[in-house]
């Protein structure tokens, strides 16, 4: 099915997308985001993690938001498992990217464990924007490779630099973490439901901060998502019932 | 040692969810409710983390130069600035406000 669409795309439009154009787009994303590993290296080292710990995170976790969340929670004195739980929940979205990508990439099973580490926001964004399977694979690989190499290189440079300059707060580098979160969050705030989730999460996260142990308020704030989903579901059910009176009466009888 | 435990748990967990996405047959995670929750969960976490890392120092709420830095980042985002520029704006403005205040 995907193969057919891909073939159709090659024939239609402007004869598909040239490989060079795909590589250029992929490198644009990979280089721009890869360079922000510098901000992570600085933040992590500024939060008190060692050079080895900082680099291990970029090499092994390789999903920016989770890494920032983990070092932020550890810096705030959070329990290591609560900190890891917050970072993990942020990484869960990658499972859904993988789901989309596995159909588009159609990788052999043996290759998948190696490709998995590169399944992140940016590689998915680039891959999904491609018209053919060939360009999907090129886009994914070039974005993944350039981003992975640069992210780890700039993490190292950032961590070494942070240790060299000492007080990273004086340079305003402690603002890099929240700015990265805001930049990741902004494109997600499209509908009223998403804005409601964000608003409730901010209130929970800040309101519970003084009363709960470090790291826990973020996890409680995550409950804003199912809460809004529940309210949304109820509202949709109610409006569906208004539309069909038969269902309405049955429901009211309950 | 505690930090290494947190790193190991995060690394294993984050790799596992990436791999699951590539391995499970389509349909298992395709239920609308699951998809919707997966889309909203990062929104909640990122919003809470942004707020905490801007307005908290340990377990006390504070209002300092980082708030100005985050506002600068927000302006950069509204102006559709590239990712790196957004982060740079936050850092430069925060440092600037601190330099002027200190």
Automatic annotation (TrEMBL), chain A:
Its main location: membrane. It is a multi-pass membrane protein. GO terms for biological process: L-valine transmembrane transport. The keyword Coiled coil does not apply. It is found in: Cell membrane. InterPro entries: Brnchd-chn_aa_trnsp_permease. GO terms for cellular component: plasma membrane. The chain crosses the membrane at residues 26-43, 138-165, 171-189, 196-225. Keywords: Cell membrane, Membrane, Transmembrane, Transmembrane helix, Transport. Belongs to the AzlC family. This is Branched-chain amino acid ABC transporter permease. It comes from Streptomyces avermitilis. The lineage of its organism: Bacteria, Bacillati, Actinomycetota, Actinomycetes, Kitasatosporales.
Automatic annotation (TrEMBL), chain B:
InterPro entries: Brnchd-chn_aa_trnsp_AzlD. It holds the Pfam family AzlD. It comes from the Bacteria. Keywords: Membrane, Transmembrane, Transmembrane helix. The chain crosses the membrane at residues 6-25, 37-55, 67-97. This is Branched-chain amino acid transporter AzlD. It comes from Streptomyces avermitilis.
